Amino acid sequence: GCARHTSIHAAGVVIAPTPLTEYTPLQRETGGERIITQYEMHTVEAAGLLKMDFLGIRNLSILGKAVEIVEKTAGVSIDIYSLPLDDEKTFAMLSRGETMGVFQMGGSGMTRWLKELQPTTINDIMAMVALYRPGPMESIPEYIRRKHHPESIEYLDSRMEKYLGPSFGLLVYQDDVLLTAIELAGYDWVEADKFRKAIGKKIPEEMEKQKIKFFQGCRTHGDLPEEKIERLWQLIEPFAAYGFNKAHAASYGIVAYQTAYMKAHYPVQYMTAVLQAEAGDSDKVAAIVHECGRMGVEVLPPDVNESFRSFAMVSWGSDASLPPGKIGRIRFGLNAIKNVGEHICEVVYRERKDHGAFKNLENFLERIQDKDLNKKSLESLIQCGALDSFGYDRGVLLSNSEMLIGFMKQIREAGKTNQTSLFGAIVGGAQQKKIPLRDAPLASLDDKMKWEKTLLGLYVIAHPFAPFEDALSGVITHISELDGSERNHWVVLGGIVGSARKKLTKKGAQMLFAVIEDMTGSAELLVFPKVYETTRDVW
Predict the structure, then answer these.
(1) Distance between CA atoms of residues 89 and 406, nearest Å
(2) Which residues contact 389 (CB under 8 A, 6 or more apart)?
(3) Which residues pair with 504 in a beta bridge?
């Protein structure tokens, strides 16, 4: 029964009308500087303090960034808080199930329901946010049925119509439960709040007390028949522990709508913002790149003449250079390349910004005179395609990397001693520096894919599984959709084996940890000894 350590709620804040020390002793966190209460969460409430959780939502940062990119690229200033809430294009996109990157709507389960629901109002979005969780989820099919068949809407009691109208007569929000207790069972607001806490916390003895009080209230306050009270209680009981309050669902619903609106109207800018936010997670980036491909947005490898530090939109809309069917291009950032440090990325970006694009390979090597541009970082730039725009094949440049390093050294030395470079050639009376590259085998597509996977964490220009994906369409589940699949159900995946590690069990049998990858992400598989024995050759 003794406290053995102090733990801190990541988002919990206590608020008092006067100095906190009049309510609770304070202390500094163990090994840190933050000030925390010495009382734990329940005692803090009992002492009369207001306890709030302030949560951060990454999607707000994505929205802010998307608005910024739209202003820079399209010259349009968007007030995210004054969007029309009846935008047909936004609801049409959600109804088609194009929800990747939309706040709260992206899971495959939610997407499936949205396609059935065909949402047309912000109320539909709020209701789905509130219902898509254990317990209330059972009401989703009924909500969809009532939306499409308004004649089937019914209320257990006519008094419920005034607060259950927007949700077609169904209990959707925590507030619906409170208003039922107030309107039908005669509770006052203080009693209703105790009722909410009891059912929300699932305290059995408190629940039993509340059940008696609720039944009694319904009998005396509105003369409800017993079977209706029983039915009401059966609706309230499983729902309450997971119920969203309406303000929470409305806040989430609005953010979901704002993200959907931006994706529907400014897809290239919005997906750029999503990629920037998720840049550190290669699995998520792979899924987003796959979605970009479906939308007609090309995601291209880094390029020293186009890339910024992070992902950046480089063309969109009516840009004449876009291939048919494409609506925009996004470039990988230089910071995404392994073995190329942040410092050299900053040097390349800054030099290009201050003195214009690099005219050719020689011009690039001449202008980037930095000790961090060594053999390893230069080879990484070559392999991931960052020097492709100079017109040389990656395989040829890689075979000549020693020559390129030699050229850079010569430029440095010539600068110090004011000598003519060995690489100089007299052209039209002026010395032009030219690197005499020797012939070498061209890089194959397999080479390029392998290098991109190693240096960027995913395949960009092509994917080894792409030729098989179309053939298996309708047979396999995308790996990115696994999270939304039902538990205890079989799913069929297709992909390539990304890696495989053998392990010995305690009994000395061999088993395998394998990673399977498709175009949307990766998943780890455990291959137990008996299965490994019969499938060894496959792996």
Answers:
(1) 57
(2) 303, 304, 305, 306
(3) 510
